[in-house]
Amino acid sequence: MNRFKCLPGLLPCLNNVFQGGALFEELADELGLIRKPGEPMAWQRHPLAFLVEAADDICYHVMDVEDGFKAGFLAYEELHLLHKPWLTAEQSRKAEEIKDVQRRAEYFRAVTVSTMVVASYAAFPIVQNTRAHGTRVALPARSLIF
User: Fold this and answer.
1) Is the Cα torsion angle 125, 128, 129, 132 positive or negative in sign?
2) Which Gene3D superfamilies does the annotation name (predicted)?
3) Among 6, 24, 93, 113, which is least packed, fewest CB within 10 Å?
């Protein structure tokens, strides 16, 4: 059974776009992706994919907390306690200057997400394997700060 019978016109188109895999292979080589052993058209994930997944998870979870506050499931005090570990003294002071608690919650979110993403990068160093030279090169942290 053809799993892709609903896409009869799309598959030949994709094959042409990727020139039977040649274009994808060229892109993978350009990105320095490492081939999976024993699989002709498969590569290891790019190291940055793990950081992107971590950032995505962080954003969704922190946003869920903010949504809980906005929906009335969390009191402001609870929201503040959840964000407090990620705030510096200066950021806490700045937050208290924001009179509108909705805006303060948004500020907490921005600071927490930024701090957690940078902390994730520091806790799980992202490295590129440069097999050609047999070395591992760490990606610069400053390229990840947004």
Assistant:
1) negative
2) Hypothetical protein af1432, putative deoxyguanosinetriphosphate triphosphohydrolase like domain
3) 6
**pLDDT tens-place string over residues 66-94:** 999 999 999 999 999 999 999 999 999 99
Is 0.90 surpassed by the pTM of this model?
A: no
The answer for 19, left when phi > 0, alpha when psi is -120 to 50, beta otherwise, is left
* Residue bearing tokens 């948004």: 106
- For residue 12, give Cα distances in angstroms to 7, 16, 18, 23, 27: 9, 6, 10, 15, 20
- Token readout for 116 is 């957690």
Nearest to 137 by CA among 126, 123, 145: 126
